[in-house]
Write a structure and sequence with these properties.
By secondary structure, the chain is mostly beta strands. It has one helix and 16 strands.
């Protein structure tokens, strides 16, 4: 984009459709796949900050600094809702049925009392639920993955500087801030209709991914780290 300034951005729109079932007793159902993220945006910016003065003091304080920023945003993943807990007499295994859906009622309830300002309209405490448990061992009439969880957006920022020590040696200093605006990203949503917390987010995103410790995951509260790297 200019001397010392680089930027890269990408946007993807997609719609993933497949067939799936929570249990072999239920027929395959065509619908939104479990990984159907419609919108995905990311961008990066790197700026080599120019010199601001000619004196030896200003050069010592301000020369060699650079800043890096990264922005990510995406819409939400679909959720598969679970209804009754049933027993398969042929195998002795338990499985969940689907749920029934009343299209005359709203999919979500909105309010500040809910984490993230929203919950799925159903569960033991719902007055006029859109989702209810089916009778007997039926699978329920709700379309597959009709509801969604929460999206994500986050900005990370880093400031760095190289200190030249000798001809072939330098020291790099970095100060990094993750989720610099401390934007709340909600993760796991309770999808079992009979639970008291059904339809509500019970974890933040960084606690919901399950691969490594939550402090190293995206979607957590604002955090900072500092690093020194000797290069020779």
């Amino acid at each position: 984009m200019g001397h010392g300034l680089q930027a890269l951005g990408s946007y993807t729109w997609s719609h993933s459709i497949d067939y799936g079932s929570t249990y072999q007793a239920f027929g395959l159902t065509r619908g939104n796949s479990d990984f159907d993220v419609r919108n995905n945006l990311s961008g990066g910016l790197s700026w080599e900050i120019p010199s601001v003065g000619k004196s030896s003091l200003s050069k010592a304080l301000f020369d060699g600094w650079a800043a890096d920023a990264r922005f990510t945003a995406r819409t939400s993943f679909p959720l598969t809702l679970y209804g009754n807990l049933l027993l398969d007499p042929s195998t002795g295994n338990y499985y969940y049925s689907g749920v029934n859906y009343d299209s005359s009622r709203p999919l979500y309830l909105h309010g500040r009392q809910y984490p993230g300002g929203r919950m799925i309209n159903g569960g033991p405490k719902a007055v006029a639920p859109a989702f209810t448990t089916p009778s007997g061992t039926t699978g329920g009439n709700a379309p597959r993955n009709i509801v969604r969880g929460f999206g994500e957006s986050q900005v990370n920022l880093a400031v760095r500087r190289d200190f030249h020590l000798k001809e072939n040696a330098s020291l790099e200093f970095r100060a990094e801030s993750f989720n610099v605006f401390n934007h709340p990203n909600f993760g796991y949503v309770d999808y079992i209709l009979t639970n008291a917390t059904f339809g509500q987010a019970t974890m933040m995103l960084n606690q919901s991914l399950g691969t490594v410790a939550s402090q190293y995951q995206q979607g957590g509260p604002r955090s900072m780290q500092f690093a020194l790297k000797l290069k020779f």
